[in-house]
Design brief:
This protein is mostly helical and about 150 residues long. The chain has seven helices and no strands. It binds heme C. The site of heme C (HEC) has 20 residues, from α4 and α5.
């Protein structure tokens, strides 16, 4: 019995280590300036810009601020999956390249997601306390968004 347990533990450890070799490209483009960025499209208070960067850009842009634990599998795969799905729907860096109708739809969607606390993803907030928006911040953001539509 003890031997079986040892084999199982060794296998788990082996799988865990083997998983670490799977490291897809990082979602990082440091220093790149995006003329099409959301922040360039609107006049926005510095506070709004800061909140979006802190709470949304990790998934919805080409630059993720990775935490140290994001590098370890299987977390890494999960994070990259979130980023890919998030960017497919909305990439703040590419905002002005979207058609007007898409921008309008997204502005409403962004407001709704923040209002209903669906975004930032609850699982993200759990690991990134900084990304959490207070009720006051939510009000400030959604009021600003309302004025843009
Ligand atoms: C941890 C990653 C993550 C963070 C942080 C995050 N999102 Fe998302 N977001 C996603 C994912 C993943 C999807 C796609 C959900 C799906 O496909 O079901 C998504 C979808 C959306 C959508 C839907 C787009 C559409 O087509 O209607 C909006 C809007 C959105 N997010 C806004 C935000 C805003 C605003 C913030 C910050 C307050 C934010 N998100 C933070 C991961 C994230």
């Amino acid at each position: 019995m003890k031997k079986v347990l040892k084999i199982i533990l060794a296998s788990v450890l082996f799988i865990f280590i083997a998983m670490q070799f799977y490291q897809p490209a990082l979602n990082v483009n440091k220093g790149r300036v995006y003329a099409t960025d959301f922040a360039k499209a609107y006049k926005m208070p510095a506070e709004v810009k800061k909140m979006l960067h802190k709470s949304c850009y990790d998934c919805h842009s080409d630059n993720t601020n990775y935490a140290w634990y994001d590098y370890a599998q299987p977390v890494r795969a999960l994070v990259e999956n979130h980023i890919k799905n998030a960017k497919d729907d909305l990439n703040f860096n590419e905002w002005t390249s979207y058609a007007n109708r898409k921008q309008e739809r997204l502005l409403n969607s962004i407001k709704k997601q923040i209002e209903t606390k669906k975004m930032p993803l609850p699982s993200y907030i759990l690991m990134h306390k900084n990304g959490k928006l207070s009720d006051e911040q939510i009000k400030l953001l959604t009021n600003w968004l309302k004025d843009q539509t």
